[in-house]
Amino acid sequence: MHLTPQPADSLPPWWKGWLGIGALALSLLLIAGGLWYFWPAEEDTSCAAGVPGLQWVGEGAQRECVGLMDKTAYTFDPQLKGIIDRIAQENQRVRQQWEKPDKGKSRVPYVKVAVLTPLTDSDTSALPMKEILTSLQGSFIAQCRANGCPQLPAAHSLGIQGKTPQIELVLANEGRDETHWQPVVKQLSELTKGEHPLVAVTGMGVSIPETQAAADELSRLKIPAIGAVLTATDLNSPRLFKVSPSNVDYAKALRRFLTGSSLAKHRGYLVFDSRDDNYVKTLRKAFDDEFGDYIGRRRASFVGTTGPKPAGIPKLFQRAVNNICLTQAQVIFYAGRDRDLADFVRALSTRSQCGHDKPITVMTGATGTFAQGSSVRGLLKANKITIVDASATSPDQWTSGVHAPAGFKPFLQALRDLKFDDSVMDDGYAIMHHDAVLTAVWATRNVTSQTASEAPNVQDVYNELTNLHDASTVPAASGELSFDDASNGWPHNKPIPVIQLPDPLKDPEPPYLVP
Question: In what order do the strands lie in the sheet with 225-227?
């Protein structure tokens, strides 16, 4: 049979052979390399090497470092370097007792307690740096007393149901206006598990809407929080506790003072900050409710300076002063931040120009008013202006032994043993932050004393916080504090001393006690 010859196979195109495969591979490599070269690199937002919990946020003047610090010290502000170094050193000592105990000694368990607060500031921020500094100093004193720091004689430690677990203090910066609370709270929630869990959050900044939002989220996450200087009556959340009195209690303490004084026969005038601020809004309401018979419709507003969102021109007090002159009012109820009080005093000092030369008493309720009022002591004396402040603390009275709570003396001794000056107490923030951390420690140790566990969880600590009464009352520096499930987080039995500037009260009566 004859077969027709077939044409030979033609050569394959170059791109189907090994040469094509190599070219394709080379092309892909070049494309990938080009993309890598031109693709924008992810920005490193970490604040410092070795501190992974801290990140830069914001732009320009608003840029700040927020997040968590517990191991490596990070100086948020030069004024904080000394106290942050001391906290970091104590944290390291606590960890070392667990990881590498001294020869012949058992490992000492520890848990974490956070201080959530602004650690940066500005001219209009929620907390000025001086109060941030004293807040950390007070927190550290409580940590040292709980841990039995080497600088403290053994007799001055707390001795709460033994000495464990020890306390590692986690500093949580939520930003100068508390605007970055959300990512920081998320970081805190991640610490609640593991061998050394976070058991409570303390501090909580000041009484503004951001604090309420942070407290609500912590409650949703089942984490108990203990506010140090929160007094806004409406600032409540299921797992939020406060060691301070409320604004309603401030007003009641002032009412008792006013009723027993020569001021009772004078008419009053209300001057209030009009911003959306929990503290000033609820203090204004408390004054209206408690002193309606003194105030009536006599009132004037102003715009305060704190907060990120301007609400008008701040500190315009002249209209209020003119109205005070017109009514010849001698008792002024001031519902504003203590940061604006000095400027209000300066405005009142001009009242003689409109025919008011009688003495004036400014009544308010705040933790640090006496520190702010001291800055205008000369004006107060020269212009017959007196400030009467219902406060959470009274360092001058208590240091001299006048109506001092039982827990104040050991706090004061520890403060001095740790080489702090008495002036640390002047604004009240050191005392109140000490008491917030102390309350967390007290509840934690109460749990471990009953369960013999090395580390309780947040649920156990929350349960115990509601049982801090009767035999478990907290011997805080600012009073014998009690909490239960019906107090809405507010302390029972908290004393509210009344402080007077520029001349202190000669014989102050026993302080009003929160029911």
Answer: 54-57, 64-69, 166-173, 110-117, 198-203, 225-227, 240-242
